[in-house]
Design brief:
The structure is a homodimer.
Chain A: E1 3-8, H1 12-21, E2 27-34, E3 49-51, E4 64-67, H2 75-82, E5 88-90, H3 98-112, E6 115-117, H4 126-137, E7 141-147, E8 150-151, H5 153-160, E9 165-174, H6 176-183, H7 192-195, E10 196-204, H8 210-218, E11 228-233, H9 236-242, E12 248-258, E13 264-274, H10 277-297, E14 302-304, H11 319-325
Parallel strand pairs in A: 1-2, 1-4, 2-3, 4-5, 5-6, 6-14, 10-11
Antiparallel strand pairs in A: 7-12, 8-9, 9-10, 12-13
Chain lengths: 327, 327
């Protein structure tokens, strides 16, 4: 059975989904829906590009629509809206608003008889699963999440908004000593500053005062003031040459104890090392889209998260094949 | 809602389950069922001990029976037998016979309207889940499983069967260079010898020829001949003092590629470091027993594996709580 996928929104993530679908012989890309003029969009070979306004007229041709908008302004209205027409998957990642988003999407999807998976990707997503399994298996323990080394889009954007900054990239870097302490099973208490450092590569405008820019960065509340931050000024050429990738990753570690007197230490670590954040996220979305199509065929209606999906549903293989080859 | 757990078989694993249940306030230990004379069994404070022959008369008092026998001779008949009376969980780990075991347990459980989870623990179990998620998310890639550093019961037993050996412990040790090569995203081809080494601590009988024992160990087919094996002769006192624990662990690594030209490397690693193999395995069994009780309440009948269980079912928390705190 082939699962037909639509892509709504054609930025980095949408292009990732377009690419990763091709690695799954049981899936087919139906087309891309964009807010831009379709004639101006350069898509991959064989990809059809539609105006987003036409989406409704394709609702019976698509098994799952993967919504590839941003969490800040797109997904809060797009996912509930398109869940009225399609089974949907999104990567909503504003942790504080997940409950509200779930409720909105659940309402739309239930009313329309559709299946909707929200907050899929790696964090939230695979990291959430690592936290859940870890918490259930080791109820007495502590969670640690380290991010990086990787590019933080939000922090890079925050630097770019400073006067005199032409462009910037910010790397979030876990503190090696903190990671090692956690992996030893010690369950240390760690401050924000002890867990991550931030390294910034900044292109300054000609004549801008670099000392002032650096001060503004390292003292920026929420983004940088709680961290040890290093600022490097580089040329635009250097930035493009050395910092144009989007690597990311990190670790979720559950450190817990077992034994009648809690005498045994156990450490569970889930670790990702990704050359490309958006392509890996896309790859997760595609696997979960397969599960959403199956849940819908079985009659599931409403919103769900990665927590609700039996792992076998992510695979094109039968239960018998999975037991024989992966168990 | 309290889930009442029975333990069938009271060795290391059964004692582990007895201990780990206490870390879960929503679970209650009903009692232990043993083949030994109950009056001779020293159980934990407050644990009731029953003769295994009485199990049937307690069938309505227990939500899930965790079968803690061995995979070689106990589980192949115990799990299908007790699935006629109880919802069951086992840790059957003979990979080659899982299909047959599943079929036998499924038949019993379906006929009796019970829910049965087989092959739960860390491998098979959590490692299987890591393999499944990894394969689905990165369909173009390669799997690597490393075990250790840890005690292999099977290899220790094999050494003990050699003439002139009084006692022995065998550690399986992953080759650091191989693990690092895999974690770099290189997808190396690795032989058995390149992945693990084996280190043996052996107590020889007085007057036994240690050279002969060592030869027999390192050349033993299946167990040692494909590995670089080191043999240390120690006194019984040293063995007990330094090697009486049951640490284990290991890593499942999925190394794959994303991107239109497969240009991005991604490495997913799931890593366990366990002070006590049986207590951690017990801890996994207990969490999954919670899921089995819930699946049974929802009407699920027959056998399943960790692949079939929505992760949320392992947790005592509601969907809303999970979304708020762990997503």
């Amino acid at each position: 059975m082939t699962t037909k996928i639509g892509i709504l929104g054609y930025g980095n993530l949408g292009r990732g989904v377009e690419s990763e679908i091709k690695k799954n012989p049981d899936m087919e890309l139906y087309g891309v829906f964009t807010r831009r003029d379709p004639d101006t969009v350069k898509a991959g070979l064989g990809t059809r590009v539609f105006d987003i306004g036409e989406a409704a007229s394709h609702k019976d041709d698509i098994d799952v629509m993967i919504i590839c908008g941003g969490s800040a302004t797109d997904l809060p209205h797009q996912t509930p809206e398109y869940a009225k027409l399609f089974n949907v998957v999104d990567s909503f990642d504003t942790h504080a608003n997940i409950s509200e988003h779930f409720k909105n999407v659940d309402g739309s999807a239930k009313a329309a008889g559709k299946t909707a998976l929200i907050s899929c990707g790696w964090d939230p997503g695979m990291f959430s699963l690592a936290r859940l399994y870890g918490n259930c298996i080791l109820p007495e323990g502590k969670d640690y999440t380290f991010w990086g080394k990787g590019i933080s889009q939000g922090h890079s954007d925050a630097i770019r908004r400073i006067e005199g900054v032409v462009d910037a990239r910010q790397y979030t870097i876990p503190v090696e000593a903190a990671v090692e302490a956690v992996k030893s099973g010690e369950q240390p208490e760690l401050t924000t500053r002890q867990k991550h450092t931030r390294e910034c590569f900044v292109v300054a405008a000609e004549g801008a005062d670099k000392r002032v820019i650096e001060e503004k960065i390292v003292n920026m509340p929420n983004y940088f003031s709680d961290y040890d931050t290093t600022v490097h000024f580089v040329s635009m050429e250097e930035l493009k040459r050395d910092h144009s990738g989007m690597p990311h990753g990190g670790s979720v570690i559950r450190s817990g104890v077992t034994g009648p007197s809690n005498e045994y230490k156990d450490v569970i670590e889930y670790n990702l090392k990704l050359d490309s954040n958006p392509y890996f996220t896309a790859s997760v979305l595609v696997a979960f889209a397969r599960a959403v199509a199956r849940l819908h065929r079985e009659g599931k209606k409403g919103a769900c998260t990665v927590f609700d999906i039996p792992p076998a549903y992510l695979s094109p293989l039968s239960g018998e094949e999975l037991r024989a080859h992966l168990l």
